[in-house]
Amino acid sequence: MPELPEVETIVRELDAQLPGQQIEAVQVFRNTPLGRTSTTVFSQKLVGKKITSVKRRGKFILFHLAPSGLLVGHLRMTGKFILAQAPKNPGKHHRVWFKLKGGSTLIYEDLRCLGTLEVLDNQAQSASLNRLGVEPLSPEFTAAWLKQALKNNRTPLKHWLMNQGNIAGLGNIYVSEILFRARLSPLKPAEKVRSKQAEGIHLHTLEVLKAALISNGTTISDFRRVDDKTGEFQNFLQVYGKEGSPCTACTKPIQRIVQQQRSTFYCPSCQK
DNA sequence: AGCGGAACCTGTCGGC
DNA sequence: TGCCGACAGGTTCCGC
Fold first, then answer.
1. Which positions in strand B are less than 7 Å from the protein's CB atoms?
2. Nucleotide nearest to A261 (CA to C1')
3. Which of A27, A81, A221, A267 is the most exposed place for a label (fewest CB within 10 A)?
4. A45-63 pLDDT per residue, tens
5. Is A262 tagged catalytic?
6. How far apart are CA A94 and CA A73, in angstroms?
7. Which 3-state string (H, E, C) describes A197-220?
């Protein structure tokens, strides 16, 4: 479900409220997100720990713990973190409750159970985190870097931008939106992107991500913020989910194609 | 090495 | 009304 702006929105809200709070108890209603880790071991690694900060890397959420350790969460399609005051009964899709000293509870819920939760000693332990590419909102993400990275690569642009090992945090919605604004076809091989066009991708990646962040992300069906509010960027989408609607630039209908088993929306007449 | 496809899960929606 | 297939913000694994 969530891409960088949605995860960042959640992380900011959690980081405003959780630091200093201690985990008093962990209740697991369904252990799917824990992978092979047993409920008991998961709980033992967390109880008594204090949350010092909440950060993001790509689409991963990192809860730093004291005196040591790191809780790493990935929401995949439908995961959510909600902060609630003393909830009484677990909701249908609640998977884990982290009861905090002082009365509030951090709820992890996940309709499809594709999300993951893992406790590590440190960040370097996670193969998934180690694989991640450049942070698009960091100083390392430059037009020059992008030009170089796209070279000698026949992968279609859509795939290349979705690959977390290249740029960490982009997903299906934002890649469609970025390519529309950059006027480039999602089918174009990465190595065919010209210098000026790479600058366009760089510029529009930053623009789209920043605008989405200001809107607190995109809510298509069920993305919710920590306080259950929705994001607002769906009001600014130009192509995602707009199959058949007139292109905002040329009025020809937006098309939907399938790449990597995922929907891609674009305007074949504007995006070459 | 690199690709497509399946798998992981549950729910909703549209067509017949 | 009911059944069936397609689809959903993501990642990983397996086989060719």
1. 3-11
2. B5
3. A221
4. 999 999 999 999 999 999 9
5. yes
6. 15
7. HHHHHHHHHHHHHHHHHHCCCCCC
AA letter at A111: L
pLDDT in tens, A119-148: 999 998 999 999 999 999 999 999 999 999
Separation CA A187–CA A107 (nearest Å): 40
CB-neighbour burial class of residue A165 (10 A; exposed 0-12, middle 13-18, buried 19+): exposed
Sheet strands side by side (includes A23-28)? A23-28, A94-100, A104-110, A79-85
Q: Residue A225: which pLDDT band, with cuts at 50, 70 and 90?
A: confident
Q: Residue A208: count other Cβ atoms within 10 Å of its Cβ.
A: 28
Contact indicator for A62, A72 with CB cutoff of 8 Å: yes
Q: Model-level pTM?
A: 0.97
Q: Are A6 and A218 in contact (CB under 8 A)?
A: yes
Q: How many CB atoms lie within 10 A of CB A237?
A: 19
CA of A247 to C1' of B12 (A): 27
